[in-house]
Structures are given as C-alpha cells and as structure tokens.
Amino acid sequence: GATIGILGGGQLGRMLSVAASRLGYKTCVFEPAGDCPASHVANFHLQAGYDDVGALARFADAVDVVTYEFENIPTSALDALEARRPIRPGRRALAVSQDRLTEKAFLTDLGLTCAPFRDIPDLAALQAALADLGTPAILKTRRLGYDGKGQVRIDSADQAGAAFDAMAGADAILEGFVDFQREVSVIAARGLSGEVVCYDPGENVHRDGILRTTTVPATLTASQRMDAALLAGRILNALDYVGVMGVELFVTPGGLVVNEVAPRVHNSGHWTQAGCAVDQFEQHIRAVAGLPLGDGQRQVDVVMENLIGDDMDRLPDLLAAPATQVHLYGKAEVRAGRKMGHVNRFTAA
Ligand code: ATP
Ligand code: MG
Ligand code: MG
After folding, report:
1. Which of 65, 77, 214, 254 could pair with 268 as two cysteines, CB 3.0-4.6 Å apart?
2. How confident is the model at residue 347, as a pLDDT?
3. Per UniProt, which keywords does this protein have (predicted)?
4. Nearest alpha-carbon partner for 184 in 108, 110, 258, 265
5. Within this chain, do residues 232 and 155 fall inside the same structural domain, yes or no?
6. How many domains does the chain have?
7. The CATH number of the domain where 151 resides is what?
C-alpha cells in the first residue's frame, strides 16, 4: 500500500495519521521532537531537523506523497522534498500563507476583503500607518505567529514605540481593527481533479488568543453562508490547491472579511469528526492521495471545545458526559495554554 508522508508531529499530524490508517495507508511522520503526538500512531517516525537534507531525502524516498500539518516549513526543506515527491497542498499555498503580507496581497488581488493593512519595516512606517488607519489597530509579525502570539494591540498613537519594540526586530504589518459581529471559519477541500467540498461554517470563540469553542451551525444568513463557501472555493481554485484549507472570517455588516488562511486541517474543523460522514482529516488524506472527496454534509449540531491546560482537570466529568466525544493528544505534560485535547458535543439529533 501507499505511504503518506506528514511533516510535523503534533495533534493535527496525529489525527491525519489515524484517518490515513483507516483508509489503508501507512504514514511516516517527519518531526524533530522525539516523543510527539503523531509518533504514537504513525507507522514510522523520522526524527530529524528541517535543515537535515539527507534525512529529508530519506523521508521523501520512503513515502509516495508529502503533506504537512503546519505552514512554517523552511523553503530549503521544501526544495529538497519537491525534487523527489509531490507536495500537497503545493508550494504556492505555503508561500502565500507563511507571510501575512503576501497572504493579504494575494487575497486582495482575488477581489476579497481583508482588514486594511500596511507593511511596517520601521518605526516611522508604524507612525505613518497609525495616522492613516487609526486606532485601535493590531501590529502582527509577518511570519510564525499563532494562537495570538507575535501580536500587539495598539489603542493610541503614543503606544507606537513600545509596540514596535515588542516585535523584537521581526518584520511586521499593521492591521486596522475590524469591528466584527462574530468570527466564523470555513473548512474547504479541493481534490486532485479540481472538485471542491465545503463544510458548513463554524462559529469561533477565542480566549487569550487561543481558539476556545467552535459551534455549528454558525449564526449566519443564507447569503453569508453562500458567500463563505464561494470565497473559499475561489481561494482554492486560484491556488490550484489539493487538500483541506481553513479560512478564518470576520462577519461584519458590510460583508465577510478574510482574516487568514491555513493550508492544512484546522482546529476549527475538529467538529467534523462528530458532525459528518467524512471528517476534515479523512478529506485531506483523500485529496492528497488522489481519491475522490467524500460527503462533508453536516448531519448534526456540534459544539467543539478545546481542552487547554487546566481544562484537563474536568476530564472525569467530560468522560462521563452524554453525547460527548473525547479526543486526547497523548501529551505527557499539561502546560498553561497547551492544547491537550478537545471534546465534540452533539447538541441535536
Ligand atoms: P491562529 O492561532 O488562528 O493562527 P494567529 O496568531 O495567526 O491565530 P490571528 O488569527 O491573526 O492570529 O488573530 C487572532 C485573533 O485576534 C483573531 O481570531 C481575532 O479574534 C483577533 N484579531 C486578529 N486580527 C484582528 C483585526 N484586524 N481586527 C479585529 N480582531 C482581530
Ligand atoms: Mg494564524
Ligand atoms: Mg487565526
């Protein structure tokens, strides 16, 4: 049987491995850390760094196709892999999503709406951008941010210096603050032959910059729901994308504003494990393996709740709760802000 190579050994890689295994594939995970969530379930774990070209070549030779669970893969590693095996989703999706400036330029060129933004190479640029966009605004590192890390909210122009220093020299952009009614995300998939499947949008609530819950159905009008699916399809087609993508949206009275895209399975898509015949992990494996996409229709209402840090104290209650699916990532150590697992609660039949 075929072997699917997965870059990254976190919980997303773990759940991708389980889905691949259910479809009869083997998986090989490439991950620098020794004991990681995906290594517990994958058939093979190649433990090496992304700068180890020899290890990357051995990994590529051992698999039929390469996919990934995170977008910050160094370009040099991608070059080494792509010379040997297909990478799905492709390089363009990674280039676009690794850098917030490239991402916003791409989305804007597609005719989609983003928060107003400015490139911030230096403090003078930040002061000019604040005068232009006003406050509140959010200064974000262009690269490597997640869970709200690498972001500073600026409430008045006199905070510019401190905010700029907080970026610690990293390239940054300033975003105007979007006064949204709610946050939703669309998980969408595109197959090797170009077909697109879109999951029902989920409504997301964050706490301390980290996703707390996703609820389906989201509070949206029929036309907002349609817009969300159409814009996701437009992004996937423009990138000639293969795999699952998460598209984060702000809902405003003026329409949907795209916050960011993730070229991979997404935390806000975990509800599909309880809500659909084919969940986002199986859908991603189907796409990268060249199988037809499956039925992503939502069958029930679901609330997904992340188990972060001390939330694990509630585990006995959650295990005993009715209509509740518990997923744990096998992380030995509980730490504040660390995603340890999630639960999917069915809220209607
Ligand atoms: P993720 O873990 O989703 O990758 P991230 O670190 O990339 O998160 P963002 O998605 O850019 O961060 O922002 C995190 C949250 O901060 C958003 O979900 C939203 O609640 C808020 N936020 C970000 N940008 C804006 C904005 N321009 N206007 C209003 N709120 C914003
Ligand atoms: Mg992000
Ligand atoms: Mg985000």
Report:
1. 214
2. 87
3. ATP-binding, Ligase, Nucleotide-binding, Purine biosynthesis
4. 258
5. no
6. 3
7. 3.30.1490.20
Place of tokens 């209607």: 348
ipTM over 0.90: yes
Distance CA 218, CA 246 (A): 15
Residue 103 lies in a domain: no
Span from the CA of 260 to the centroid of ligand 1 (angstroms): 8
For residue range 46-95, list pLDDT tens digits in order: 999 999 999 999 999 999 999 999 999 999 999 999 999 999 999 999 99
Does 111 map to a domain? no
Q: Per the structure block, which two tokens stand in for 173?
A: 């952009």
59 in Cβ contact with 81 (< 8 Å): yes
pLDDT reported for residue 349: 59
Q: Are 298 and 333 in a shared domain?
A: yes
Q: Are 181 and 253 in contact (CB under 8 A)?
A: yes
Last residue of a domain, one of 130, 154, 176: 176
Q: What is the pTM of this model?
A: 0.97
Instruction: Please work out whether the CB of residue 267 comes within 6 Å of at least one atom of ligand 1.
Output: no
Q: How many CA atoms are closer than 13 Å to the CA of 110, on its beta-carbon side?
A: 22
- Cα(172)–Cα(141) distance, rounded to whole angstroms? 4
Q: Say if residue 224 is in the same domain as residue 139.
A: no
Instruction: List the structure tokens of 102.
Output: 């490239």
The CA R_g of the chain, rounded to the nearest whole Å, is 20
Domain limits for position 157: 116-176
User: Is residue 25 part of an annotated ligand binding site?
Assistant: no
Minimal CA–CA distance to 12: which of 194, 243, 336, 300? 243
Task: Assess whether pLDDT exceeds 90 at residue 147.
Answer: no
Pocket probe for ligand 1: among 259, 260, 264, 267, the residue whose CB has the most ligand atoms within 8 Å is: 259
Rounded Cα gap, residues 53 and 276, in angstroms: 39
Q: Is 203 annotated as a binding residue?
A: no
